[in-house]
């Protein structure tokens, strides 16, 4: 018998390619089924979510007031204060017991005025924290009262939990550990799936190689037989001729047609992309990390972009906003020193604009964030995960119109929409009342 020869090697490679293609499709499906990007760390405006506050001047255990205070606290206070530990300013636990609400309200509204008036406790706090001036807040008495109610509720929570091992001060750390454990479990499950796929691929490869060897052995055995006629010998000796495939007119025609289609497609895509800046990621004059501030430290968007819930523009934060924290935090950082230099020279920081709509299009931030309740990530993507901000969405007219066609309007509790919704439901058999249903796709809405 002749030595074993793998004459069907092309068939082996074909089977191997199909095997890996199947595994690749399975992996792609796993990736495609991944959950949406987490939106933790960036909270919509407190005004859009907060329930009516408690009556001014009286702390309360009312759940609605505490919820309102929670949103206001995170949007205005959490950058400099914590309940159980000192951050930039003092810990706020039991502040309602240390000072009356009649003192807290004017202090939060304008601490500078109280220090200047010579109020003993105000001066003491001012000197104790290196004469760091607390910003003034344009909050109503009821809003401040709801914040104090929230602080009072948080202060009553036990600082030690023997079963869980968490304190009010390290709850975030424990939560982070639990989340890390859950993530590790998920990673472990993913590793087992990957290992199983690898084992299956190896088994398939072994099977293919085994079949090829058996086929060649059988071919050699058959060639050693003397009773084969000419046709049988011809079948055993036949080889697959690849040249017949790529030399055929059909294959050449398909290849040329495919090449022309690819060129046309890329040309059309290139023309359609003129003027689009999706993915634009300029280098900023100061290395500001949204991942650190909005993600890890969970600073509310509205703390820096102060007009995002009440104005057409979200505004670029001034250096003074940065100094609310960085007059005390990371003062020796080379990047923070750039802020100091800008203030000393009385020059604004030259931030590079990332998102820019053409002048012919009207867009109002407050209409979307405050009225519509649209989250920042809807248009800006996972901003809380970006070290350097880039343009996530295409911001094209078609992209905006599709959103208006799909985005339902929250009409509950607003009598303005009652008759419109009835007429819409009668004409559209219960279809969702979207922005488009309210005229959101009319040309004059954005172009006038």
TrEMBL record:
<dbReference type="Pfam" id="PF14522">
    <property type="entry name" value="Cytochrome_C7"/>
</dbReference>
<dbReference type="InterPro" id="IPR029467">
    <property type="entry name" value="Cyt_c7-like"/>
</dbReference>
<dbReference type="Pfam" id="PF00034">
    <property type="entry name" value="Cytochrom_C"/>
</dbReference>
<feature type="transmembrane region" description="Helical">
    <location>
        <begin position="195"/>
        <end position="218"/>
    </location>
</feature>
<keyword id="KW-0349">Heme</keyword>
<dbReference type="GO" id="GO:0009055">
    <property type="term" value="F:electron transfer activity"/>
</dbReference>
<dbReference type="InterPro" id="IPR036280">
    <property type="entry name" value="Multihaem_cyt_sf"/>
</dbReference>
<feature type="signal peptide">
    <location>
        <begin position="1"/>
        <end position="28"/>
    </location>
</feature>
<keyword id="KW-0479">Metal-binding</keyword>
<feature type="transmembrane region" description="Helical">
    <location>
        <begin position="249"/>
        <end position="268"/>
    </location>
</feature>
<protein>
    <submittedName>
        <fullName>C-type cytochrome</fullName>
    </submittedName>
</protein>
<keyword id="KW-0408">Iron</keyword>
<dbReference type="GO" id="GO:0020037">
    <property type="term" value="F:heme binding"/>
</dbReference>
<keyword id="KW-0472">Membrane</keyword>
<dbReference type="InterPro" id="IPR036909">
    <property type="entry name" value="Cyt_c-like_dom_sf"/>
</dbReference>
<keyword id="KW-0812">Transmembrane</keyword>
<keyword id="KW-0732">Signal</keyword>
<dbReference type="InterPro" id="IPR009056">
    <property type="entry name" value="Cyt_c-like_dom"/>
</dbReference>
<dbReference type="GO" id="GO:0046872">
    <property type="term" value="F:metal ion binding"/>
</dbReference>
<keyword id="KW-1133">Transmembrane helix</keyword>
<feature type="domain" description="Cytochrome c">
    <location>
        <begin position="64"/>
        <end position="155"/>
    </location>
</feature>
């Amino acid at each position: 018998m002749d030595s074993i020869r793998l004459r069907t090697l092309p068939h082996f490679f074909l089977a191997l390619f199909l095997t890996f293609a199947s595994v690749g499709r399975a992996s792609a499906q796993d990736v495609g089924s991944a959950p949406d990007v987490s939106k933790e760390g960036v909270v919509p405006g407190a005004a859009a979510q907060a329930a009516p506050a408690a009556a001014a001047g009286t702390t309360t255990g009312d759940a609605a007031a505490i919820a309102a205070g929670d949103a206001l606290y995170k949007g205005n206070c959490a950058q400099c204060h914590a309940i159980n530990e000192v951050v930039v300013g003092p810990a706020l636990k039991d502040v309602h017991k240390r000072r009356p609400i009649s003192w807290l309200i004017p202090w939060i509204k304008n601490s500078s005025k109280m220090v200047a008036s010579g109020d003993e406790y105000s001066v003491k706090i001012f000197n104790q924290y290196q004469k760091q001036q607390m910003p003034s807040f344009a909050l109503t008495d009821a809003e401040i009262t709801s914040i104090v109610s929230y602080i009072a509720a948080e202060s009553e929570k036990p600082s030690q939990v023997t079963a869980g091992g968490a304190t009010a001060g390290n709850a975030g750390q424990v939560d982070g550990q639990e989340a890390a454990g859950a993530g590790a479990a998920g990673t472990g499950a993913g590793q087992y799936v990957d290992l199983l796929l690898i084992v299956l691929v190896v088994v398939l490869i072994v099977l293919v190689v085994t079949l090829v060897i058996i086929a060649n052995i059988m071919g050699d055995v058959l060639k050693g037989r003397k009773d084969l006629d000419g046709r049988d010998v011809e079948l055993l000796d036949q080889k697959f001729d690849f040249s017949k495939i790529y030399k055929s007119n059909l294959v050449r025609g398909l290849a040329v047609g495919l090449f022309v289609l690819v060129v046309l497609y890329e040309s059309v895509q290139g023309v359609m992309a003129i003027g689009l800046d999706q993915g634009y990621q300029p280098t900023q004059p100061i290395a500001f990390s949204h991942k650190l501030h909005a993600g890890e430290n969970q600073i509310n968007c509205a703390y820096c972009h102060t007009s995002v819930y009440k104005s057409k523009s979200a505004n670029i934060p001034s250096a003074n906003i940065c100094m609310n924290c960085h007059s005390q935090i990371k003062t020796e950082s080379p990047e923070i020193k750039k802020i100091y230099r800008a203030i000393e020279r009385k020059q604004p920081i030259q931030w590079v604009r990332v998102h820019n709509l053409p002048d012919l299009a009207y867009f109002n931030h407050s209409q979307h964030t405050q009225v519509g309740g649209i989250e920042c990530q809807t248009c800006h993507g996972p901003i809380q995960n970006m070290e350097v901000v880039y343009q996530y969405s295409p911001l094209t007219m078609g992209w905006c119109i599709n959103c208006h066609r799909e985005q339902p309007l929250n009409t509950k509790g607003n009598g303005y929409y009652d008759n419109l919704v009835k007429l819409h439901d009668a004409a559209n058999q219960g279809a969702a009342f979207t922005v488009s249903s309210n005229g959101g796709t009319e040309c004059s809405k954005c172009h006038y």
